[in-house]
Design brief:
The protein is mainly alpha-helical and about 140 residues long. Helices cover about 75% and strands about 0% of the residues.
Length: about 140
């Protein structure tokens, strides 16, 4: 693989996951609302303490996911054939994100099975109109 391809592909991957890690991570500071909590607040009428705790943990889980992506990518780039690294950052990227989102969805459906369900259309509309920017809780 040419050096330019490595730099461009690796740069995009690293920049995206680093930015997401920083964004989600900074939202976990005291006085700030975690990203996932803010998103859930835009979708729900009420936010019981159990949901607030859960969404904070989900924000942490996404931080772990982003950091893991960066660590695995770096490890593969340094120690594996470039084709393996390239496959990880391009071909496996979207499926891993989808798997993470589906795993969280499954957990939520089990843990909060007695609560109302927010459908896909309502979720997309909330993203479109309200965004994902957390409210500053200070």
């Amino acid at each position: 693989m040419r050096v330019v391809g490595l730099v461009v592909t690796g740069g995009c991957h690293t920049t995206a996951y680093s930015a997401l890690l920083i964004w989600f991570g900074l939202s976990l500071r005291p006085g700030h609302e975690p990203i996932v909590t803010g998103f859930a607040r835009r979708l729900r009428q009420t936010m019981p303490d159990t949901v607030v705790r859960y969404t904070r943990k989900v924000t942490i889980a996404w931080c772990v996911f982003f950091a893991s992506q960066l660590m695995v990518s770096t490890t593969l780039l340094l120690f594996a054939p470039h084709a393996a690294w390239f496959s990880f950052v391009t071909l496996l990227n979207l499926p891993l994100i989808v798997m993470m989102a589906l795993a969280e969805f499954a957990c939520r459906r089990v843990l909060f099975r007695h609560e109302g369900y927010t459908g896909l259309i309502k979720t997309v509309l909330a993203l479109r109109h309200g965004g994902l920017m957390p409210a500053n809780r200070s």
